[in-house]
Amino acid sequence: MSLTQDELKTLVGQAALQYVTPGTIVGVGTGSTVDKFIDALAASGLAVAGAVSSSVRSTERMKALGIRVLEAGEVTSLPVYIDGADEIDHAGHMVKGGGAALTREKIVADLAERFVCIADESKLVPVLGAFPLPVEVIPMAAAQIARRFAALGAQATLRAGVVTDNGCQILDVRGLQITDPKAFEADVNQWPGVVTVGVFARNRASVCLLGTAAGVKTLVF
Ligand SMILES: O=C[C@H](O)[C@H](O)[C@H](O)COP(=O)(O)O
């Protein structure tokens, strides 16, 4: 019997517990897959010292389940950061931000020694770009940034009605084939008004726990 996408998310959310050491502080991402991890962590009884959260959404969920949440500024490093992805390639580069949390996710990921990505198998791709790339932008720069993407042959549209946890906007960019994620991330990140581009190359995954019909597959990068 094949598992649903939701069941695959539950599976990898639970599998991520093996990367969490009692007494340590864990970095926690955002999204429907991470929700499964948060639920598994709360149910596991693993006595973590707390969590650094990447969004208001995850903070609220953790607090409701009795997990202590610390500010990013209260820690100097984290042993592990657990998060989902919208796409991941065979080298651990990711596209993230489908839930508009990309900036805080990148900040928390940058504090971590290891990024453990949890995803169902639909997220594994040969080349990043089929999923519309989220880019968080300062509102007054949105039109100019959209023109820059148009010059690359891509189409950027404003995510209607969305204001990020940082008070900014999200552009979703279609029509890209990101063959050199590291160079692309570095380039777009320095365009004026870009807060964060949703390519995670510098902060790529070290491990991916992929939910497949045959169970959890561990990819190490
Ligand atoms: O902003 C949201 C994040 O980058 C999520 O990690 C990403 O969108 C994956 O979310 P989900 O687990 O819901 O597919």
UniProtKB/TrEMBL annotation:
Catalytic activity, reaction form: aldehydo-D-ribose 5-phosphate = D-ribulose 5-phosphate
Catalytic-site annotation from UniProt: 105
Gene Ontology terms describing biological process: D-ribose metabolic process; pentose-phosphate shunt, non-oxidative branch
Keyword Isomerase: yes
A GO MF label: ribose-5-phosphate isomerase activity
EC numbers on record: 5.3.1.6
Superkingdom in the source lineage: Bacteria
A Pfam cross-reference name: Rib_5-P_isom_A
Any one Gene Ontology cellular component term annotated for this protein: cytosol
CDD domains hit by this protein: RPI_A
Protein transport listed as a keyword: no
Family to which the UniProt record says this protein belongs: Belongs to the ribose 5-phosphate isomerase family.
Subunit structure: Homodimer.
NCBIfam families xref list: PRK00702.1 (NF001924), rpiA (TIGR00021)
Protein name: Ribose-5-phosphate isomerase A
The species this protein was found in: Paucibacter sediminis
Gene name linked to the record: rpiA
